[in-house]
Design a protein that fits this description.
By secondary structure, the chain is of the alpha+beta class. The protein has helices at residues 78-95, 99-106, 126-140, 148-154, 210-220, 222-243, 247-267, 277-293, 317-327; strands at residues 9-16, 18-22, 27-29, 34-35, 39-43, 50-58, 65-68, 71-73, 108-115, 166-170, 181-186, 194-201, 298-301, 308-313, 336-338, 364-370, 377-378. 47% of the residues are buried. It binds ligand DP6. Ligand DP6 binds at residues 20, 23-24, 33, 39, 124, 126, 155-157, 210-211, 303-304.
Amino acid sequence: MDSFTDDAEFITCDSPVNIALIKYWGKRDEKLILPLNSSISVTLSQDELRARTTVAVSRNFKEDKMWLNGREQSMKNARLQSVISNIKRLCRKRKSDNDQVNDKLQWKLHICSENNFPTAAGLASSAAGYACLVYALSKLYGVDGDLSKIARMGSGSACRSIYGGFVIWNKGEAEGGEDSKAEQIVSETHWPDLRVLILVVSDQTKHTGSTVGMQTSVETSQLLQQRLQGVPKQLEKIKCAIQNKDFHSFAEITMRDSNQLHAVCMDTYPPVSYLTDISHHIIQLVHAINQDNNSNMVAYSFDAGPNAFLFLQEKDVPTVIDILHYFYPSSDPNFIRGLQVPAKRDVHVDYTVFSDLKVIPRALKFIIHTQPGPGPTVKDSDCGLLTKDGFPLNLNNANGKI
Ligand code: DP6
């Protein structure tokens, strides 16, 4: 085999996960991935959850190849192809007189991507994965400008992972999707004491994927049509709560939107159900905590799966962790991962107020303690996932799908 090092070029990038507060659910165009409603999300820190992607081109590569979490993937994925061809088109448009770039565009591409969290945890990774791929390709081909529109073609929610902090994906009006793109509302430093606890539930049921789930909702749910009329007002309200760091309102809008998404799922025919008994137990517990506190201390949000994303303020983390430990006891010394839990103030939780709720041992696999974070970044070459010959350094990880 020839040495590839002379011509090969490598770029490695990291990209974050985002969690929607006002959910995207339903498309008006399946191919271009244009949503029926705008959505708002918060991007999470990459210290706890991130996708990492190395992309490489070389005149010596024989064919385009891709590996995800150590497993080779087919390149015949329409969304993957759409992302690659759109980045290349943007590059051609801007650099048509540069021979070196034109060469690179002809060369075959190797892509290797990994998540720093277990695929089995059921945490959506496609948003971080596609945002990372688009960002890395843009650096490889020297493309700048709006990348969120291209990430959107991989997976709708991926367009929001192109930015850090709080992000809105404006649904846009144009038929071709030119104005359907993400935009930062405020950066990750805006609300420094906001924290997120991700409750990874033990029984990860096999559930309908979000693409199919939302498509069936569009076809069959009348409640979805009603939801669409109310979303613009909710977007304005949550933007205001974020700007003012008004946790009480932020929490209520977030919980109501999550509940509405899952009501739409139940109104879908046949119904789609993502929440398990444990998810419902978490919902009851959060409302009991808030009621006891006379104001919202915690908010939950659920995507197309049973895991809960809890939002709270740093000062309340020790109390809420105490309560979670009480209701979902675990002997795992690594039960709480991520950010350190701040030292306990002198709070005493009166568990008699929660007497309606059962204690459920081992209900949760683990909890990830994290916070809002920045958008994608370029990494040093020593973080790369490909050898100098363009093949994965690590081929024995768990499998996964982008
Ligand atoms: C419930 O972005 O995964 O997480 O565009 O078909 O790839 P596709 O769907 P996807 O849907 C995400 C749905 C959601 C809500 C959200 O993130 O806004």
